[in-house]
Write a structure and sequence with these properties.
It contains 16 helices and 14 strands. The chain is α+β, with helices and mostly antiparallel strands. A hairpin with a 6-residue loop joins β4 (69-72) and β5. Monomer.
Length: 436
Amino acid sequence: MPVNALPHGICRDCLTPANTASRRCRSCGSPRMLAHAELDRLSLAHVDCDAFYASVEKRDNPALRDRPVIIGGGKRGVVSTACYIARIHGVRSAMPMFKALEACPEAVVVKPDMEKYSRVGRQVRSMMEALTPMVEPLSIDEAFLDLAGTEKLHAARAALVLARFARQVEEEVGITVSVGLSYCKFLAKVASDLDKPRGFSVIGQEEAISFLQKQPVTLIWGVGKAFAATLGKDGIRTIGQLQTMERNELMRRYGTMGDRLYHLSRGMDERGVKPRSEAKSVSSETTFNTDLSRMEDLVPVLRALSERVSARLKEADIAGRTVVLKLKTADFRLRTRNRQLGDPTRLADRIFHTGLELLKREVDGTRFRLLGIGVSDLTDAGRADPQDLVDGLSHKRALAEGAIDSLREKFGKQAVETGYTFGRSKVARPQRDGED
């Protein structure tokens, strides 16, 4: 069938073109029909893996398939993600773990395995990049795709290509994705959330105004609880109310945010898909089960986190010039300290010792619930860690670290440990990681 002759309906199971009026596929009988009047004209999509971490764990452990699963740290940690069964009980991402277990006491709690999730995320990402070079990752498990101009390559319109992709991910990766298809990034992201899991929703240009009219203002990016409360005080609770207001009035009231409210409330979003946004920093952090205040307890954690950051830098072949230490006190006050190095580094030894100097200034009896370390000002690894003519031992430490990396790659992470972490794996093991 010629590309231009694509009808306005597709069966998402067998991928057979279908009439828009069909409620079930005439070929396979599936009710998972995708139909829309603009289906053959839209090419901008947002793809989001469904409950990603939990889905990967359920894939790898079939015994968890019908159980509520929460991915997160210990009782003092927070929920990284929860499967849809747990969500029915009220469990949400970023919820404190103790509250999540109160809401769903029968849940199975699984500590996050970020390296495994990263591998699966890269697998899905490579499948996206096989569809189009215009892929803009937002996180490990979601991205925007622009398939405009790829019709001849795939001999199919974007909707059919994306339906094939969703089925391929299920068959080859073993997890599910939800797809939002529209004419702009804002509505593509909104569409991907409409029918999770295994969703495929379409918002066309002709229906954008009427669709948005009924939605709450919190649907707009940047409108959180605080700003929604501000709008509520002014009597504005729905996007439809914003659609009746002039741009100048909105900007007079809310500044630059008013300009965003004006445009997005009308489905106007000129931002294009930007392939592979450059990472700004690489970091790793952990929330403790009990507050820590002594150097002897904090140092092993700092060392383990530094090694985690170093491994990521080496894997990505990048380095950072600024070391950033992050601490959160028992009363949730955040402290961030940083130091710029003379040369970029990707060595755990340099990251750790720089972070250690920063940490010593903060340890004064204060109890900490979180510790993190990272690097920013990222650059190519070719400029990293030149031999230090002043510190003659730095080159030997770098060689030793390279030998340790080789042994760990061959025999596993626990094959070699430094004296900082040896025998303290439970204390030093990071519970939750962050990466920008």
